[in-house]
Amino acid sequence: MAYTNVHRAFLQACSNRGAISKQQALDVLIGIYARYGDGDTIPNEDDIIDVVAKINERIYQFDQKIVYTHYEPLEEDFYVFVNLQESPIDLQQNIFTPQELHFFRVLLRELTLSEDHTLTTIICLNLTNDTVNETVKPLPKTRAEQLLHEWSALGYFAVLDEKLHFGPKSVVEFDKYLTKNYSDIISRCCLCNVTIFYGVRCASCPQILHKDCLKKYLRRLTNCPACKELWSVPI
């Protein structure tokens, strides 16, 4: 398959939006096909997989990738455009000020440290007082509110039930960053060995598992994969 305007347009849509749901990705591809593709062909989900694979062949050399991931808080699948470098936050320096990027790091830190990886909006805005040093003024709360909306629109965060969560883009793009900086807190699902931010905790032991992984596991077995006690927590 040649690399065409279909691939270029889909890549641009993914990079501009940061993260798009599987249905949004299909809608985008249908629109792109109408403009650049065969007018008699309506793409399906398999076509998205082929397009993404071809794009990834091209952009991997630039440490970029479109990743397909399941986002547990919404129980929905997403295509996420990510940078694969060690410190992807630093790549935003030409877009956001050092003060704003510090606020972003603080949000990542506090979401990681919170017991359920969520923060209320009020707590988020109060985090603007966490400055780099005494000579740097706190980020204005009005700007902080704007940033929360911008970063949520890009998939870095998600506001659900009036609380801020890690978004699908952060879950994928900052996996290495968070694991490296908070290795004593970040854990991995024992079923898929992927970092777990949101999941289901066993009633008999501290083990937390991805809900999607657990559903597949419980189709075959009924005991916790960690402590082997009968699984009793509803999913």
UniProtKB/TrEMBL annotation:
GO cellular component assignments: nucleus; Smc5-Smc6 complex
Entry keywords, A to Z: Chromosome, DNA damage, DNA recombination, DNA repair, Metal-binding, Nucleus, Transferase, Ubl conjugation, Ubl conjugation pathway, Zinc, Zinc-finger
Any single GO BP term: double-strand break repair via homologous recombination
Subcellular location: Chromosome; Nucleus
Superkingdom of the organism of origin: Eukaryota
Domain annotation Phorbol-ester/DAG-type: ranges: 174-224
Catalytic activity: S-ubiquitinyl-[E2 ubiquitin-conjugating enzyme]-L-cysteine + [acceptor protein]-L-lysine = [E2 ubiquitin-conjugating enzyme]-L-cysteine + N(6)-ubiquitinyl-[acceptor protein]-L-lysine
Boundaries of every RING-type domain copy: 189-228
GO molecular function terms listed in the Swiss-Prot or TrEMBL record: ubiquitin protein ligase activity; zinc ion binding
Coiled-coil intervals, chain numbering: none
Enzyme Commission no: 2.3.2.27
Principal location class: nucleus
Enzyme superclass (EC): transferase
Pfam families assigned to the protein according to its UniProt record, in alphabetical order: SMC_Nse1, zf-RING-like
UniProt similarity note: Belongs to the NSE1 family.
Subunit structure, interactors included: Component of the Smc5-Smc6 complex.
Name of the protein in its database record: Non-structural maintenance of chromosomes element 1 homolog
Organism whose genome encodes this protein: Anopheles culicifacies
